[in-house]
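Budget justification aside, the reviewers requested a transparent look at the raw inputs and outputs of the sequence design task funded under Objective 1. We therefore reproduce one unedited record. The lines immediately below are the structure tokens for a 420-residue chain.
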């Protein structure tokens, strides 16, 4: 039971790169864009569907006209002889109208509007995908930066321990009259210098950890970052979100082309008008008296915007040009992506070759340092020679540790470059 508890506690005290990526995506403010984009799209599509609902318009107007229809003068005289007063229409006219219209066919405009809305939403979502993919790269840089600084701090601790061990040995030799006081001073000074470097490394590591904490939204206190175990991708074909963004932009332009074409088609619909005012539809009756009357009108209406043909060709050519620009941007992106893949693949091969020799170099440096310690005890070499051997071993070990982390980091960069 105790061992199980210890294992669970150790697991909680660790965090992986994948966990940091997931936490950062959930905590990053832009993740809320997905829900906002979907909500905005739903509203727009709902409005587009309501274009087929009956439309009701209420209007009122009062006008004065410079002239109105009237009877010829001869007829007015004739009516007067018959004792009829026919004043004609008044120049001031009034109308309160209610109109109901129902679209029968809109030339495909509402369907094209919905397609444009959906294409724009898809483009916005793919744009967020690109930003979140870039976020993964930023998390990787911070994570591996912390691992590299952890390794350098650990190596500094080993070097300080080695220097203090030799300092004790030199002081023992000094008490026996074999070593000079300056020998101990030199080793102690080197230990203090390495300690200063360690403090600077710790400060940099703490800064990196604080930045990573801001990204993932939780504290890393007491947690150790694990070096990922990763294999080099078998394929180098990119599956980047930028490619999907280019596709979404092309789809949006295609939808906009359909919308432009619908502008040149006729539209048909039913309408019904009812108004109360003067004059009514019975002009003859309105000429005889100025009373307001109820009037109704129902029919079929066709509208055809011929002026849309004036700009149709240029607008379509503009959209086709925009599509060509997107294809150029796609080709440039893929070209640069291939360059990055080639560079990173070559860097991985170089690091593997160098890492294969690092273990041997560290073993040889350790052997030389141990021999120097033996020679120092026998008075064959001085302290400066030993310090040089310790420095050489420290540099070899630090290079080996850094190269191992750099190899994993470069593999992750390659996976990020091709999004695999």
């Amino acid at each position: 039971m105790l061992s199980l508890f210890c294992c669970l506690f150790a697991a909680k005290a660790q965090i992986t790169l994948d966990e940091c990526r997931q936490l950062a995506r959930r905590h990053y403010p832009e993740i809320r864009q997905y829900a906002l984009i979907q909500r905005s799209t739903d509203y727009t599509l709902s409005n587009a569907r309501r274009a087929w609902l009956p439309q009701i318009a209420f209007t009122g107007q009062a006008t004065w006209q410079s002239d109105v229809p009237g009877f010829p003068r001869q007829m007015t005289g004739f009516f007067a002889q018959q004792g009829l007063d026919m004043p004609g229409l008044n120049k001031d006219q009034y109308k309160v109208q209610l109109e109901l219209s129902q679209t029968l066919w809109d030339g495909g405009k509402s369907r094209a509007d919905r397609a444009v809305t959906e294409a724009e939403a898809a483009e916005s979502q793919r744009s967020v995908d690109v930003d979140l993919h870039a976020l993964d790269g930023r998390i990787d840089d911070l994570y591996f930066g912390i691992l590299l600084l952890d390794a350098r701090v650990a190596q500094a601790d080993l070097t300080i321990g080695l220097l203090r061990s030799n300092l004790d040995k030199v002081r023992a030799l000094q008490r026996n009259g074999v070593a000079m006081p300056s020998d101990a001073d030199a080793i102690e000074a080197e230990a203090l210098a390495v300690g200063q470097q360690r403090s600077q490394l710790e400060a940099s590591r703490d800064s990196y950890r604080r930045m990573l904490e801001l990204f993932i939204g939780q504290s890393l206190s007491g947690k150790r970052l694990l070096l990922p175990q990763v294999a080099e991708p078998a394929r180098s074909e990119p599956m980047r979100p930028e490619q999907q963004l280019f596709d979404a932009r092309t789809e949006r332009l295609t939808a906009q082309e359909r919308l432009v074409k619908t502008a040149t088609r006729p539209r048909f619909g039913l309408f019904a008008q009812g108004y109360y005012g003067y004059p009514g539809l019975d002009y003859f009756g309105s000429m005889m008296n100025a009373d307001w009357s109820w009037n109704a009108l129902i029919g079929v209406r066709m509208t055809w915007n011929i002026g849309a043909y004036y700009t149709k060709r240029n607008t379509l050519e503009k959209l086709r040009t925009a599509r060509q620009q997107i294809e150029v941007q796609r080709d440039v992106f893929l070209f640069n992506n291939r360059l990055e893949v080639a560079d990173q693949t070559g860097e991985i091969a170089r690091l593997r070759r160098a890492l294969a020799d690092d273990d041997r170099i560290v073993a040889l440096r350790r052997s030389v340092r141990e021999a120097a310690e033996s020679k120092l005890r026998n008075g064959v070499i001085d302290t400066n020679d030993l310090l040089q051997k310790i420095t050489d071993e420290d540099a070899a070990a630090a290079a080996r540790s850094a190269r191992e982390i750099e190899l994993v980091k470069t593999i992750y960069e390659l996976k990020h470059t091709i999004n695999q």
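The first helix runs from residue 2 to 12. The beta strands are 14-15, 55-64, 92-105, 224-225, 267-278, 293-303. Computational costs for records of this kind are itemized in the attached budget.
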